[in-house]
Specification:
The complex is a heterodimer. Chain A has no helices and 11 strands. By secondary structure, chain A is mainly β. In chain A, a hairpin with a 4-residue loop joins strand 7 and strand 8. Chain B has no helices and 11 strands. In chain B, strands 2, 4, 5, 6, 9, 10 and 11 form a 7-stranded mixed beta sheet that branches. Chain B has a 4-stranded antiparallel beta sheet with strand order 1-3-8-7, with no helix packed on it. Chain B is an all-beta fold. Classes of the chains: A mainly beta, B mainly beta. At the A-B interface, strand 4 and strand 5 of A face strand 5, strand 9 and strand 10 of B.
Chain lengths: 114, 112
Amino acid sequence: GESVGLHLPTLSVQEGDNSIINCAYSNSASDYFIWYKQESGKGPQFIIDIRSNMDKRQGQRVTVLLNKTVKHLSLQIAATQPGDSAVYFCAENGSGGGADGLTFGKGTHLIIQP
Amino acid sequence: EAQVTQNPRYLITVTGKKLTVTCSQNMNHEYMSWYRQDPGLGLRQIYYSMNVEVTDKGDVPEGYKVSRKEKRNFPLILESPSPNQTSLYFCASSGWGSKPLHFGNGTRLTVT
């Protein structure tokens, strides 16, 4: 079946290093992708999105890369800080239920080592 | 401040006792949705609403009801809660044609 997944449930990085969180999707018809950050005790918070007509999009300290050929999405966080510690979800449209059509991955827990 | 507000944040109840979790958004969003989040399963959609008086089932609607009598409110109703509905619940909203969902801070429900 169609799914959105992340390669690693947990990722540990040193403070100050760059973090790369990966996501694979299986629906080639998906044309919109989102990354969310969920801190402990809070709801998912929108970070950045990208449409399928783009390969790369940058925000403040974050970059999303989309490789449609291999159906792969990644989130890069530059100079990781303690406040980046959270669970990160990717989401795609095109295969989920509901008007938003979003299907969520199960998340990668980013752990920042001092 | 633009936000989605859920209440209560924590709720412990017993099997069969009807409960309602409220959700309100102040962004004039047309679209609202309820999700449950369980370990290993991620976010799963329960119900959604595209506008006032319009609601539809998501992926896991069994045991839940919703209503959308006003644009800003979208309560989740459990008529007869069961232990398998113990979960973390999120309400979310978005503007029409605007994809990013805005989430509330969650309601942790325990049914004993």
